[in-house]
Amino acid sequence: MDRSEMKRRVCDAIDSHRDVIIALGRTIRDNPELGFKEHKTAATVAKIFAAHGIPCQEKLAITGVKGILMGGAAGPTVGILGELDSLLCADSPFGDKTTGAAHTCGHNAQIATCVGAGMGLKSSGVMEQLAGRVACFAVPAEEFVEIEYRLDLKRQGKIEFLGGKAELVRLGHMDDIQMAMLVHAAAVSPGPKLLHGSTSNGFVAKMIRFKGKASHAGVAPEQGINALNIMALAIMNINAQRETFRDEDTIRVHQIVTRGGDLVNIVPDDVRMEMFVRGKTVEAIQDANRKINRALEAAAMALDGEVEIQTLPGYLPRINETAVTGLLAGNFAALIGQDRLEIEGHITGSSDTGDLSHLMPMVEVKSGGFHGGLHTAAYGVADEEQAYIVPAKAMAMTVVDLLADHATVANRILADFKPKMSKPEYLACLREIK
Ligand SMILES: [Zn+2]
Ligand SMILES: [Zn+2]
């Protein structure tokens, strides 16, 4: 069977599962869960794998679900990833009214496309024609949020790293995958579109605790040390650093206050912030991080208070992979037209696909079919065909390109690929960040 016939069969099989795939995307949307808490979502994925004869492993890095499709002959394993987690957005019409969780980053579509691609490859019988395996991998905790909660998980020994893919790497669940792809939702692109060829910022996360001295805020403020004022100075100091950041380093520094004092009539003595320091390269992130540490320490010094700074490994910048991207983009072009493809360039957000891109050919592209801005209440699926079905087809077609004819193409890509880090080097790099 030639490649075009295999692709036709896979796409027909995905079309015949169209209702199931779209229903899955909606079900996940309507049951959003934050990272490392995606228990219902994971159970839904495991159930649908079982219903379609795809054996899977569960509870990988707490909630990951890995479905395996075996080819007719031995060869490399291609990962098709889908992220399980949501964000918090109480105003989203599809938010969980109890927890405030909502899929405002479109990860529900990733799960539908990851599982949908697997269903198409399996039920079409095309896997028997291919050399290698496919891992349809629903992965936990891409959004690096709820840091206090995750540090608690760390203290309990349930995780070491706060992001899902780093945990999967650490635990060996990525060891059998040689290359991977993921289709993320694009912002404000209601119609057919593919954004590809991007790099992204990496970041470190920081937990800051400003320590002052409590006192009666009305009677004796002069006897206190106001930790909220230290924080205010720290933010001014950080803002004063911004003109020193080079445009080409695409630095982003942003923070939230997670504790601002307890009672208004007591001088605040314990004020806390979470921050990200993002940049285009590890060196640029380290340089900006040193400046931020100085800004924080200077603020504490000015008011004779103290500051505790905890810097945590976030994500590495994403390297632009070209070979698998080219195949995936070509398959999108066949489905939606070449004129719907755009090169994305560098984005100043971050993803832990950046970490994987240091270890293996890792492709992340963005599909249209969504309205509203990412991480806002307005975000949602505008076009179910484009959001759920087209990416499933394009990824399944790319598996055909990679693993047909004794996996010639996949093997050539792997022979040419020079990983930026080995797994031990990667883990050491994360563990060095303090
Ligand atoms: Zn996302
Ligand atoms: Zn996001």
Supply the CATH class of the largest domain: Alpha Beta
At CATH level 2, the architecture of the largest domain is 3-Layer(aba) Sandwich
State Rg. Answer: 23 Å
Ligands bound, unique: zinc ion
- Residue runs with pLDDT of under 50 for 5 or more positions: none
Proportion of helical residues: 25-40%
In terms of DSSP E residues, the strand content is 15-25%
Mean pLDDT, all residues: 97
Strands of the largest sheet, in order across it?
1-2-6-3-7-16-8-14
Could you please say which CATH topology of the largest domain applies here?
A: Aminopeptidase
What is the overall number of helices? 12
Number of strands: 18
Shape: elongated
Biggest sheet layout:
8 strands, mixed
Order of helices and strands: HHHEEEEEHEHHEEEEHEEHEHEEHEEEHH
Q: How far is the N terminus from the C terminus?
A: 54 Å
CATH superfamily of the largest domain: Zn peptidases
Category from helices, strands and their pairing:
alpha/beta
- Overall structural domain count: 2
Any overview of this molecule?
With 434 residues, the protein is α/β, with parallel strands linked by helices. The protein folds into two domains: 3-200 and 317-432, Aminopeptidase; 202-315, Alpha-Beta Plaits (2-Layer Sandwich), CATH 3.30.70. The protein contains twelve helices and 18 strands. The protein has helices spanning 3-16, 18-30, 39-51, 107-123, 147-155, 164-170, 227-241, 282-302, 323-336, 353-357, 384-416, 423-432, and strands spanning 56-60, 64-70, 73-83, 87-88, 101-102, 131-139, 179-185, 194-196, 199-200, 202-211, 252-259, 270-279, 306-315, 341-343, 346-347, 362-367, 370-371, 380-381. The strands form five sheets. It has an eight-stranded mixed sheet with strand order 1-2-6-3-7-16-8-14, sandwiched between helices. Strand 17 (370-371) and strand 18 (380-381) form a beta hairpin. Helix 1 (3-16) crosses helix 4. The longest helix has 33 residues, at 384-416. The N and C termini lie far apart (54 Å). One zinc ion binds next to loops.
